[in-house]
Amino acid sequence: MNLDERYVFVAEWYDPNASLLRRYDLLYYPVDGSVEMHDVKNHRIFLKRTVYESVCLQDLFIGNKVTIFSRQLHLIDYGDQYTARQLCNRKEKTLALLKPDAIPHAGEIIDMINKAGFKISKLKMMLLSRKEATDFYVDHLSKPFYNELIQFITISPVIAMEILGDDAISEWKKLIGPANPGMARTDFPASIRARFGTDGIRNTVHGPDSFATAAKELELFFPSSGSGGPVNTAKFTNCTCCIIKPHAISEGLLGKILIAIRDAGFEISAMQMYNMDRVNVEEFYEVYKGVVTEFNEMVTEMYSGPCVALEIQQNDATKTFREFCGPADPEIARHLRPGTLRALFGKSKIQNAVHCTDLPEDGLLEVQYFFKILEN
Q: Catalytic center at which residues (predicted)?
């Protein structure tokens, strides 16, 4: 490895105190994982070169957000030609669509996606209208199975994801396997369709086969305007809220946590990935301010990267799901309640894998915050 190698990015940070967007040059040194920041406007060093293990090279791509010492930086451009040449072709993004028949296996499929080295940058459980389905399957209009296809894709929720990776379009198609699950089981037994597919229509997942198709389909599910697109699936009845925290997402635990929730008998009726800012998190956590001594650390963790919010349904959902999450401190959870989510996946009292609603009267309010307020 070149000891002098460094990558430079232009990054923006919104300063809530000054209500200003501040711009920095962010330098990353792969030899030791250190970072350095220069204040662009004032032409001075803002952060001296410091080893920072929470950021790695795979996090550094245009459009991503990284958190360095509590500042959430939005990477908006390459800082020099060397960085652009080295990294501009490194990442592709594509659509990973889990069809209605895949929803019971969503945890396993997401775990396969993570293990294959993809990064999930957007995720939403949604219900397609007939018009959205016909727009999506416009190329299949003349096929004899077209009507059955439309009926199937609109019958119940799907999960759409934007995934990133090296040669993501072709690599995702390899992971999916052939459209015919029988052929997949014969020729590509480790593929997703081999494991979970039934037939040519109920074949669990979809992936575009070209850059142009990927761009078109991602725009359908995740409009660049930031609004519109297929509706979320929140029901707002008999529900409680769960948030899978950023550290668990970055550690590739999302699929495993979804499997554990399903196997415990809970229904996940809505799911969406969010990149929250400090203002949103403080608003959501307001009830804990002045009550929990770790409030600031809790806030910082929640906006340190993407989180995934879930609407959980069951009778007496808030009480039963809170019990399943276990004590807030994972060490205590491992001692007293070893089968709980925090015992299995938590690292510390702050990085304890999940947030769950504490009070029964707050279950609906917390679900509404994510799936109504943040949606608008």
A: 206 (pros-phosphohistidine intermediate)
Q: What value, to the nearest 5°, has the Cα angle with vertex 179 and ends 174 and 184?
A: 65
Which of 206, 247, 335, 355 is flagged as catalytic? 206
In angstroms, the CA 114 to CA 108 distance is 10
CA distance 43 to 28: 18
User: Could you give the residue range(s) of every CATH 3.30.70.141 domain in the chain?
Assistant: 92-232, 239-373
* Fold for the domain defined by 239-373: Alpha-Beta Plaits (3.30.70)
- Sequential pLDDT tens for the chain (376 residues): 567 799 999 999 988 788 888 999 999 999 999 999 999 999 999 999 999 988 888 888 887 888 898 888 989 899 999 998 888 766 789 999 999 999 999 999 999 999 999 999 999 999 999 999 999 999 888 888 899 999 999 999 999 999 998 889 999 999 999 999 999 999 999 999 999 999 989 999 999 999 899 999 999 999 987 777 899 999 999 999 999 999 999 999 999 999 999 999 999 999 999 999 888 999 999 989 988 899 999 999 998 889 999 999 998 999 999 999 999 999 999 999 999 999 999 999 999 999 999 999 999 999 999 999 887 6
- Indicate the residue type of 113: I
CATH class of 7-87: mainly beta
Quick check: is 206 catalytic? Answer: yes
